[in-house]
Every structure is written in structure tokens, then in C-alpha cells.
Amino acid sequence: RKGGLKAKSEKMFGLMDGFLKNDSVSLQKDILDHVEFTVARSRFNFDDFEAYQALAHSVRDRLIERWHDTHQYFKKKDPKRIYFLSLEFLMGRSLTNSVINLGIQDQYADALTQLGFDFEILAEQEGDAALGNGGLARFAACQMDSLATLDYPAWGYGLRYQYGLFRQIIVDGFQHEQPDFWLNFGNPWEIERVHVSYPVKFYGTVEEEVLNGKKCKIWIPGESVEAVAYDNPIPGYGTRNAINLRLWAAKPSDQYDMESYTTGDYINAIVNRQKAETISNVLYPDDRSYQGKELRLKQQYFFVSASLQDIIRRFKDLHKNFDEFPEKIALQINDTHPSISIAEVMRVLVDEEHLDWSKAWGIACRIFSVTIHAVQPEGLEKIPVDLLGSVLPRHLEIIYEINFRLMEELKKSFDQDYDRLSRMSIIEEGAVKSIRMANLSLACCHTVNGVSRVHLETLKTRVFKDFYELWPQKFQCKTNGVTQRRWIVVSNPSLCSIISKWLGTEAWIRNVDLIAGLREYAKDPDLHTEWKNMKKVNKMRLAEYIETLTSVKVSLDAMFDVQIKRIHEYKRQLLNILGIIHRYDCIKNMDESDKRRVVPRVCIIGGKAAPGYEVAKKIIKLCHAVADKVNSDPDIGDLLKVVFIPDYNVSVAELVIPGSDLSQHLSTAGHEASGTGCMKFLMNGCLLLATADGSAVEIAEEIGEANMFLFGAKVDEVPALREKGTTLKGSLQFARVVRMVRDGYFGFKDYFKSLCDTVEDGGDFYLLGHDFASYLEAQAAADRAFVDQEKWTQMSILSTAGSGKFSSDRTIEEYAEQSWGIEPCKCPF
Ligand SMILES: [N-]=[N+]=N[C@]1([C@H](N)O)O[C@H](CO)[C@@H](O)[C@H](O)[C@H]1O
């Protein structure tokens, strides 16, 4: 059989005429072949979208080629693998990133030119894969790019939502949500693996029976759904490695309950089967946490069960003994969303592989690690016991057993300290008895990661204080990072060329610490000229986009001041808008000579509000109401323009960030676990105006506080300030601008009343009033700096030069060395 197989593969290899060719002519041939044979259009008559589809399929061929070679090699070397489980992946577009990482962008650009097409125009045909909400989801995507580029043997696992994050439509300044039919015209970047599918069980009961003299539990499920794999090759940059992001879609299981058919209840059977498919239908659109939604729990267990069945099958292909499991597998769960996987591993090892409990638990504790993205305890997931008991009865039993043994262990250290025991319990007593998924994760995971140094301190001293005092060794900091491939090379090619030119190498794209080499040229006038021109080119592109979308004409000489992120009270977009009202009010009361000294601004805000988040939706409306007033006021002209960019997503970020001069990160200190948008702006030489919160603290250490504009209460000052409550008075300017909104200066007086109430009369939980004065000072400092364009350009260059730490490559290397214990496994050919 071995001989036969060997002969067969030699024959196969013989037939294969080597690797796909990437010269322009070969690419032209492949693209036209896909027009005719994949898109099935005549090669003499096809439109831009069909050209894009054909182009995408020709790129996909090259991804698949590397995907195969990489996985053949992983199989051969059998290294320890990292499996990254995330309920969300915000991938964005794939075309440009793929051809750049494959290293064949120029060849494709030439091939298309020969065929009479423009690469950039075809790239615009692609829709975003928006399978996530915000930072946590994009963090997962950046991680995958770095895992591939650094040649780590890694897999990503998630859900293939039929509908991605809703499209944001703005009507009369109000947000409306539209479903995101992202799969309508197919998805060339995925490969449906009909042969890779697993049954996933739900509901039912748990029976006990004796097997070989040992009592064991049998779960009799009530429903079964089929999980089918869709593979998305993730190419590394400057390497042949291409790893896999395997997303699961729910299909009706092929088990026919003949019962219903015989009774002619056919329709019902079909409806039930369709119900099964809904599990992977839609992404929950809220960046905050979810308490007790049945479908959400089913989504979490669905992808966890399918992923673990797939992981264990792959392990068993090469290994017989589960003692080797922790040597070969590391499991990273992205926040607590996949933490039901801990109970699932215990169920499989104990109930199906018949390992005894402590052996199984020992294995679980050696394979799992978790990244926590939330800061506030109320942001931590809890699942009602009744719900879990109904959907996953055996898992509830297992979690009770885990908790029982945890409590027994804790009693050894904290015998009478019942408050601590109840705080650390995985089971939360109370009105709604619930499972604390974070406590389950902390009880099992060998490593618990915070996403910035400030965040980890908050987890150690507040959120998980009890667990930190018991297991300090588990708590590690892995400050987030973003990939410079997408956030410089793909989205800002002119900056990419400048950096490579002045560093005299492109090696920084794989080894970003080299970017610090720009520091020595920070005052170089030639670099300043090129740098300013690069920013101008990107600002022109952004200005055109703004005019097309909102018909607002903006001046390129103005400072482009940007705040783009999910709309949330703690991110304080309202502080930005109240600052704009103050600026508007000041200009209105200026005489012409004063106006000549005003630094013109274009204030750009963008972001989606969770559909049910009324306060956030009011903030979006207020932004539009202020924009309508300011932009139509002849006294203001180009001194101030306000623009809300609708439907903010990864592709919009790739256009806005390179064209930004100043970006705002205004979270009340202690509320932003990290923030990753700030890192993308930093890489693109955009100056930061920020509170000392999350990763902004580490950014200030890397570039120097003098190269950014910090303001506001510090993390350790906030609790005391909140104590002050009503006595805490905002500045006069603050009271004035809130009054203008409350009095209906921008209209919608009644509608904005509750919004004003959130920041006045002692209700100002996020301290907008307290921080307003220092916020205006920081804004004034930014104005003064912007006037001195050489100073500003120097600060901009030093921002990019100091951004190396915030590459997801550094983040991944830390996870690999300190958490996962994995080594690179580079595909040789
Ligand atoms: N969920 N969650 N958490 C977040 C973001 N909202 O997605 O994760 C992001 C990624 O870790 C953080 O940057 C951000 O501060 C934090 O709020």
C-alpha cells in the first residue's frame, strides 16, 4: 500500500508541471481561463465584477498551492500546533493583502494593465468579510496574518456567519441597520470542504451506565446539527507558508426523523431542519457582552464542538496516547466566548475517551490559555444555569464537578473566607443562578492574558484580584498589536515606499523593529518633503471619498482630525462632539483677525452603534445635527467642517487612517482594555490625542509624551473622582456647550435631553465634565503644533518610528514563547 501510494504520488507529481507560474503572461492566461471556466463568461465580454471574480480565483489558486504545501509539511514535521478559537474574525478584504503577501502584486498589476483593467478599480469590487464587531475581532485577524508570516504551525477556528456585521445606513442623521448579505455573490476566498463535517449535539438528557465496571455518563442529545468546514487560506508575507482559518457553517444533519415523515408532517420536518441552519446565520452585533441568549450559546458550542472534533481527529491521525496531547496542542480562546470548550474537552476525554477525571483535567489545564478583552466585571459573560442545563445538560454537570473540586482546593487556602469562595465560585448564586465563564476559564487556563499593561494591572488588582492572589503565575501581559502588512503595506503604499527607501530595505515588513531606523532622519528636510507629500496624497483620497459620500467639500490645508471606532459611552465620542461645539462657538464669536489665527479643522467621526444601544444612537444623531449646523454656517466656511463617515469597517479604516493628521482616543481612563485603532494611526504617522488609558500609556513610552497630546484623569484617579459624584463640577465651557444642546441649538431638544442628562447632575459616570478643560488644552496644543508643519512632520515621523512594538508580530512571538510553547515550522520549498 505504501509502495502503491508512493507510486501514485510520484505519478501525480510527474503530471504536475511544477508550481504555478507568476509571470504576467501566465497570470493573464489564468485570469482569462477563470473568466471562461469559473465565472463562465465569454473572455471577450465581461464586466469589472466578473473580472474581479476571475482575478480572485487566480489568486486563490496560488493560495491553495501554498496551503497544500504548508499542511503537507506540517503533517510531515508534526510540530506542536496552536489552535486559535474566536467567535469573531474581522478579516476585511483579501485580494490586495493576498497578492502582497504572495509577493506578486507587481506581476498582477501588469497582467491586468495588459488586459485593459486597473488593479485598484477591481479591488474596489470586493466586499468586506465583516465576521466581527470591533477590536477583539480585528485582533484575531491581525494575529492570523502574523502567525502565518512568522511560520507558526497555527489554525484559526470560527463561525461562517451567513450575515456579517450589519450595514449602517444613515437616514436624516439616524442609524438604521441593514443585513450584510456578504455571501450573495459567492466568496472566492473560501473553499467549502463538504467532506470535513461533524455532527454537533444539543439538548437531551444524561443517562448513567456502567462500562467495564466503571460508572460513566452518556449524553442522549435531543437535536443534531451538521457542522461543515469552509477553509480560508491565510498567506504569510515573504514566506511560502499559508495557514488555515476554518470557519464552520450549520447544515441540517442528514439524520431523517422518519417518524415525522410517516405521519406526513413533512413541512414540519423541513422547518426543523432549516431551524438547524440558523445557528450560524447571524453575528451578534454588540461589542459589549451577552447575557443568556440561547442562540448565542448554541453558536459558541457549535463552533467549539466542531473545532475540537477536528483537532482531536488530526491528533489521533498521528498519535494514540492522550498524554502527548499537551505536547502537540495549545488552545487559545479569544475572550470567554469559546470557554465552553473547557467543559467540552472534559466531556470528550472522560465520557468518550474514558480517561479518569484528574488525568483529563490535568490535560485541559496544560492546553488552554485565554485572552481577556473586557475591563469591567459587568462585561464578563454569565450563562444562566437553566439555559445551560437545557441546551448542554452534560456540560452543566461537568462544570458543577469542576467547581466542586475548585472549591475543595480553595478551602485548603482560604477555609473560612466564604466571601472569597463565593466570589471565586464558577456558579453565581442570586436571582438568576448563572455560570461565570471567566471564572471557569481562570480555573482551567494555565495563562490569562491582559491586552495592555494597564489592563493587566486592572485584572490583577480589581477584576480577578482573588485569582491573582491565588495564582499570580497565570497572569501575563500580551499588549495587543496590529499587522503592518495590512495597515501600512496594503493601505498606505506611498508610506511603505518611503520607509523602504530611507531604511534602504524592505526587511522591516517582516522585522518591524527596523522601523525605528527612521528616527535618525526625523529632522531631515528631504524626508519631510516626501512625508508631507505622502500625507497630502492620502488626504486628497480621503477628501474625495468624503465628498462622494457626504457631498461635504473639505480643505486639504485643514487638520484632518479623526475618531473612528465603535460608538460607546466609555469611548466618549460625545466629548469630541462637545469639543467641536466649543470650537464652533468660539469661532462664531471671533472677529476676522482672530479667525485668521484659527487652525482649520475637518472633524471626522465614524462607527457603528449596537442596534439596541439608544444612547450610542443619540450620539450619532447629535453628530449629524452639529454637522448640519456647522457645515451650513457661512460664518465658519472652511475653518471647521464636521463629517460622519457611515458604515465604518476595515476597508474604510484602510482609507481614512493614512489620510488622518490627528486621531482621538478619548476613553475614560481605566475603560479601554487596549485599543488597537491607535496603533494603526501611529504606524501611519498620525498624531494621537488620547487619555492615558490602555495601550496609549505604552505608546507614550515608545514615542515620548512630547510627540502626542495626553489629557484627562489618570486610571488611578478615576475611582476617587467618581466618589465625589455631584460635587464634581465641569468647567463653565462644559456647562455652556451642554446647555446649547439642551436648549435645542442643534434641534431635537427633547430627543437630546436624556443625552445631556448622562453628563450632568452628578450622572457624569464617564467624567466628560471633569476632563473637558484638559481636553480643550490638548486640542489647543495640537493646533499650536500643527501650525509648525516641520515640528508636526517630525512628530509624525517619530510616531511611525516608534510603532514597532505595536506590531502583532511582537504580540504573537510573546504568545508563542511565553504561553503556547510553539516553534516556527517554515515550509522549505
Ligand atoms: N470585546 N472587547 N474588547 C475590546 C474591543 N471592544 O473589542 O477588545 C479590543 C482588543 O483587545 C481592545 O483593544 C478594546 O480595548 C476592548 O474594548
From TrEMBL:
GO terms for cellular component: cytoplasm. Keywords: Allosteric enzyme, Carbohydrate metabolism, Glycosyltransferase, Pyridoxal phosphate, Transferase. The keyword Nucleus does not apply. GO terms for biological process: glycogen catabolic process. The modification N6-(pyridoxal phosphate)lysine is found at residue 680. Its cofactor is pyridoxal 5'-phosphate. It is an enzyme of class 2 (transferase). Coiled coil: none annotated. GO terms for molecular function: glycogen phosphorylase activity; pyridoxal phosphate binding. Its EC number is 2.4.1.1. It catalyses: [(1->4)-alpha-D-glucosyl](n) + phosphate = [(1->4)-alpha-D-glucosyl](n-1) + alpha-D-glucose 1-phosphate. Allosteric enzyme that catalyzes the rate-limiting step in glycogen catabolism, the phosphorolytic cleavage of glycogen to produce glucose-1-phosphate, and plays a central role in maintaining cellular and organismal glucose homeostasis. Belongs to the glycogen phosphorylase family. This is Alpha-1,4 glucan phosphorylase. It comes from Anisodus tanguticus. The chain holds residues 167 to 995 of 995 of the full protein.
